[in-house]
Specification:
619 residues, 16 helices, Transmembrane 9 superfamily member, transmembrane, golgi apparatus
Length: 619
């Protein structure tokens, strides 16, 4: 019970609503006075061309003058994201503009120069924060004059002659809002990186050349680079509560609405097909079967009524199916709660890492619901080894995720990436699995297995019928590919924005759209599963248990195919290790999607069969 209380407190801390004046560590507003020092912290280096993040000091940036590098303690989500928040030598004074401040003169060895050149070629960006607000580069979109924010700033650039230049001077703009006389809050943090040779003065200041000066080119040998910065404070009318709007506001809202309308059209079309073709057909079948029973009991049964004595026969490898369904329920419950909480604003990106932390803890707590449904389903299938089934349910998905993550972690460790999960965090995840997730699954399985099994309207014959040869389009693989098209078509546009957020280091905060798309996806998956199951029964194939799960999960194949398409068209990933990481993580995403959609289709088919066979008179 102690572990449950601790876990509950942690989840509540991760999902508390973000309100002005409500204290959440690192999120509550901080008031500065004129002359107060403002610390600038660094998070990491990221690139869409190389998906491995690195620590800020993995390249030879200027370090604090006292040499005291301090890393901030981070939550579970921050660590798993690869964030390593550390102090920097940048020091601002509230409302004090600085034209040019010298940081240091770094004598770069040949290896240091080559490391900078490599990171610049890979288009790495450095990420910093002031008062928990990330720095962003302001970029103009050209003729329209629109401005958008690119998180972080590029380490450098390459000209048309393949010369590499280092951005050694940063022009910061800190926007502040005066909500009370004499008290100021940071509401904006912008940067304009430049490659420029500055002139150092006798003190800590420097001078910028009036004519623009020379760029700092990185050669092939050791060289000395002067790092500097300037800062300008600007008053803003933006209140503290709205300071994240520029990061979260997207111009793709119209595209999202188009995605929603497209998905609704798909679902309505499918619903119309289902209602006209399936519902009317099933009603006609039921009426005909009942009429034939009243007129002549000697008439031979046809259609899906013919297999009534086998339709609820327990499937082969029933334990594995129960494990997969239980995993799907656990993932569905976790995803539903996280999406709803994020949609209501409870998981703000200002609370860094809260989304992932909440997802991990909720997955563990949903083990109780998962175990209950798995236990009752296993009892319905007349399973005789509940202990083994409970153990497999508790270990199936976590062992896949942790096992794959452990292997991929070796690649990250080998490249000294900050994305590598530390040993202590791995131990913490294992403790959560063994001390929270597994006990809750065992407890839920115990009560589920003691519960009465699901009641079925027809009895099962002792001798199974032989399944006739099936047409090609009703076989498992073709049916899965055909059935997966419509659910994927209902959500592929939203998938594009999710991939952008994951692989191109962007914020994703349109959870209202995601909530609507998720409902549409669930409805379309359930409907296509019912259609596939009905056609299968009409062809006298009563083996629907596994088919309903696999066919409903067919859209996961298209998710993986889209990941390949995204890799070839949107990303410029180079190197063996980043490619392995990308496809490894994408495979885990597709596998998770398979468990979730398969579970939806399974229960939809089970509900459908229970209803239609209960409406038919069977002796």
């Amino acid at each position: 019970m102690t572990l449950l209380r601790v876990g509950t407190i942690l989840v509540l801390a991760a999902v508390l609503p973000l309100e002005e004046g409500f204290y959440v560590p690192g999120v509550a507003p901080f008031d500065f006075r004129a002359g107060d020092f403002i610390d600038v912290k660094a998070i990491k280096l990221t690139s869409s061309s190389n998906i491995m993040p690195f620590e800020y000091y993995s390249v030879p940036f200027c370090k604090p003058k006292d040499g005291d590098i301090q890393y901030k303690s981070e939550n579970l989500g921050e660590v798993m994201r690869g964030d390593r928040i550390v102090n920097t030598p940048y020091k601002f004074t509230m409302k004090k503009n600085e034209q040019c401040t010298s940081l240091c003169s770094n004598k770069l060895s040949k290896e240091d120069v080559e490391l900078f050149r490599e990171r610049i070629r890979q288009e790495y960006s450095a990420h910093m924060i002031v008062d928990n607000l990330p720095v962003a580069t302001v970029i103009s979109s050209g003729k329209s004059g629109d401005v958008y924010y690119d998180l972080g700033y590029r380490l450098g650039w390459i000209d048309e002659n393949s010369k590499v230049y280092l951005n050694n001077h940063l022009q910061f703009v800190v926007k502040y809002h005066q909500h009370t006389p004499g008290l100021y809050r940071v509401v904006g943090f912008e940067v304009r990186p430049k490659s420029i040779a500055v002139t150092k003065n006798s003190d800590s200041t420097c001078s910028l050349p009036e004519d623009g000066g020379k760029h700092v080119e990185l050669g092939n040998s050791e060289q000395t680079v002067d790092f500097s910065y300037s800062v300008t404070f600007e008053e803003s009318d933006i209140p503290w509560a709205s300071r994240w709007d520029v990061y979260l506001t997207t111009k793709a809202v119209d595209i999202h609405w188009f995605s929603i309308l497209n998905s609704i059209v798909v679902v309505l079309s499918l619903s119309g097909f289902l209602s006209v073709t399936i519902v009317r057909t099933v009603r006609r079948d039921i009426a005909q079967y009942n009429r034939d029973d009243e007129e002549d009991d000697t008439l031979e049964e046809t259609g899906w009524k013919l297999v009534h004595g086998d339709v609820f026969r327990p499937p082969p490898h029933q334990m594995i199916l129960v494990n997969m369904v239980g995993t799907g329920i656990q993932l569905l419950g976790m995803s539903a709660i996280v999406v709803v909480c994020a949609m209501l604003g409870m998981l703000s990106p200002a609370s860094r890492g809260s989304l992932m932390s909440a997802a991990v803890f909720l997955f563990c707590f949903m083990g109780l619901i998962s175990g209950y449904h798995a236990g009752r389903l296993y009892k319905t299938m007349k399973g005789r080894n509940p202990i083994r089934c409970a153990v497999q349910t508790a270990t199936l998905f976590p062992s896949l995720i942790l096992g794959a993550g452990f292997l991929l972690n070796f690649f990250l460790i080998g490249k000294h990436s900050s994305g590598a999960v530390p040993f202590g965090t791995m131990i913490a995840l294992l403790i959560m699995w063994f001390c929270i997730d597994m006990p809750l699954i065992f407890l839920g399985f115990y009560f589920g297995y003691r519960k009465q099994p699901y009641t079925h309207p027809v009895r099962t014959n002792q001798i199974p019928r032989q399944v006739p040869e099936q047409p090609w389009y009703l076989r498992l693989i073709p049916s899965s590919l055909i059935a997966g098209v419509l659910p994927f078509g209902a959500m592929f546009i939203e998938l594009f924005f999710i991939f952008n957020a994951i692989w191109e280091n962007q914020f994703y905060y349109l959870f209202g759209f995601l909530f609507i798309v998720s409902i549409i996806l669930a409805i379309s998956t359930a409907q296509i599963s019912v259609v596939a199951t009905y056609f299968s029964l009409c062809a006298e194939n009563y083996r629907w248990w596994w088919r309903s799960f696999v066919i409903s999960g067919g859209s996961s194949f298209y998710v993986m195919a889209y990941a390949v398409f995204y890799y070839n068209t949107k990303l410029t990933i180079e190197g063996f290790v980043p490619t392995v990481l990308y496809f490894g993580y994408s495979s885990l995403i597709a596998l998770t999607f398979f468990f979730m959609t398969g579970t939806i289709g399974f229960y939809a088919s089970h509900f459908f069969l229970t209803k239609i066979y209960a409406a038919v008179k069977i002796d």
